Target: 3,4-dihydroxy-2-butanone kinase
Amino acid sequence: MANLFFFQSSKSFMSIAFLIQKTVPFCFHCNADVVTEFIEGLVETYPGLQYLDGFPLVKVVIRSDVSSSTYEKVAIISGGGSGHEPAHAGFVGEGMLTAAICGDVFASPTVDAILAGIRAVTGPKGCLLIVKNYTGDRLNFGLAAEQAKSEGFEVEMVIVGDDCALPPPRGVAGRRGLAGTILVHKIAGAAAAAGLSLLDVAAEAKHASEMVGTMGVALSVCTLPGQVTPDRLGPGKMELGLGIHGEPGAAVTDLLPVDVVVAHVLKQILSTETNYVPITRGNRVILMINGLGATPLMELMIAAGKAVPIMQLDHGLAVDRVYTGSFMTSLDMAGFSISIMKADQKILQRLDAPTRAPSWPVGVEGDRPPAKIPVPIPVSRPTNNEELSRPQQLTHQGRILELAIEAAVSSVIELRDSLNEWDSRVGDGDCGSTMFKGAAAILDDMKKYYPLNDAAETVNEMGSSIQRVMGGTSGILYNIFCKAAYAKLKTSSKPVTAKEWADALEASIAAVSKYGGASAGYRTILDALIPACQVLQERLNAGDDPSTAFVLSAEAARAGAESTKDMQAQAGRSTYVPSDILASVPDPGAMAAASWYSAAALAVKDNYNST
Model:
């Protein structure tokens, strides 16, 4: 394989001599264990790193000098799909990341892997999760955060979306997380190393994420391991505004001189129309030129050399720091991205602070500890379902809870075909089948081991049942829903009061909205649950009998679900469906939520006053 390209020095031209004979690059790229083997090589190279012995499901790199039992500073954890090396594992080290969670190539890491990383390095001061703005990362890191909180860990999360290539998006997708995330890692890591509290570290990271913008340009498409390189770009073409997963860019154009390309990218990032970054003339800034995987350092330096005078002369900016190299790549993609961050004295102090993260870079001296350590397990909760058991005799509330759960999941099971039919018109046609799997698992597991006399633990186990069998976004969202409710209920009285159930529902809705990005009017399950929660709280506060309040709130849930016919989708696959089709079908997820909520409410009403 050859992937040689050059900037013609006489004309500063991004002219690529594509001597590319790509089929399947190098035999080791065909290995299904490419990520685990990368990690093994990484820790052999750098003695300051270790990995958790949980391959292939748990792929976590941590600092070798940190353990949760002894670490007295805020842990900084990040991660995402692999294929972006050195991100994220190459930035683990004192002064930057405490742990990096590695997914498969271009795939978000699992919730279990993220939890393993949190448990391995998080001490009493808590941990900050820094997450690039992609739906899979948001949901998986979000669910792991909620689970960790329920285990007693202090957790905060900052989402980075620094993409400046596209117009401001509608809905919940938002701006993609790109190479500017690395600067946020460095700032957060330095703040944590200085001994700041979790909230203060999170505040600095969030501020940094709001100060940075990024845009990329590519001259080739990346090659996934074991696959043939796509032939999307023809000879003499380049792509502007692409992401880091090989997805198409904002525009395809003929090859242009490098100074023209750099000027265009800088103008887009600093545009006052989109106002993605709060940078104006006279500001101090940091510049990062990031290679996308197959760009020689020489060419990255040429881009840096063109960028600095354009920023100074055309935009009136003072360039205080320039970082040039490969920080967040896209496998073997030829191209680069430019990131600009507004600087102040605190940001410069954090960026200048020492770090031993190998790809910032740092030296590799030091004693070599063992390469791997055991994966930690939670100590505050049972490790498997065998340690849970169904009570021999149910309390009155335990019996009501059983009947409510049974009614709820039975309603979902009966609605399967209708949900699939609705979803076939506005989604991928599997909503009913997916919900059926979760409902059937809950029904089966409840009969075996749910501790029904303990409402909090029962709700938590429902989340575990869902996690085991429900795929896709629905499974993650319902698991988040249950984990957030569990965190609220475990501090409640026994038996749990109606008001405490209402507060738990409110907490669950807030968690789903936080990590899923949707809110009222987005045509999702929240359009059934939010009005239900509002009515439930109102009626309970007004002194209504709890059973009556639940039934009235169920009516609000059904009305809210039906109202989704009149909504323009702003989340999920329905966002791609024409509005005239959406108007004929309610949102399947909202209808499912209204169904199980109503069934549970009626079961509560029928049995609340029974003896």
